[in-house]
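Re: the 202-residue chain
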Amino acid sequence: MLHNRLMHATVSLYRRHRFPAEIISHTVWLYFRFALSYRDVEEIMAVRGVAVTYEAIREWSLKFGQIYANELRRRRPRLGDKWHLDEMFIKINGKDNYLWRAVDQDGNVLDILVQSRRNKKAAKRFFRKLLKGLQYAPRVIITDKLKSYSAAKAEIMPGVDAEGLLRPGMTAFARIDFGRRMVGEILIHKLKQLLRPEVWML
């Protein structure tokens, strides 16, 4: 794995730290690879039996992070030009919300966004977030036929095709095999934080 190779390449940098190089390299790798918060990484490591504070993770990320960030940027796969979009109903603190999701044709997670609405305004906000974060427009989008998508696309991405719309009841994620267990684990972990905060509070 990437963090193992970088760990051996910079092993001298880890000397005089209380935690072994394997732990430090893995926490820094998690932080930069999945764009998590320091507390997210702290909780993920706690699940794995490693009690490390978010302050320590922050210090490690500041000290060793540039090496990891540079390598991850160099190795990042080219994202696809076909976006699969859908939204799913969830409850957060007893209130109804929608988790808007996007992946490309290769199963790369593009972005997620929790919103209380499922209307045109919410769709436009999700489109803007995707375009701002990815810095490119797709060739085609595939949706679950929610009318809000077509209305928002007409304003935000009028030149993008919307071919191959999904059948009713079939989500975009059902058509995509992620093949990336760690990505799934991170998404599930973050959803558990949202859905059952009383369980995950420190």
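The domain at 82-199 is CATH 3.30.420.10 (Nucleotidyltransferase; domain 5).
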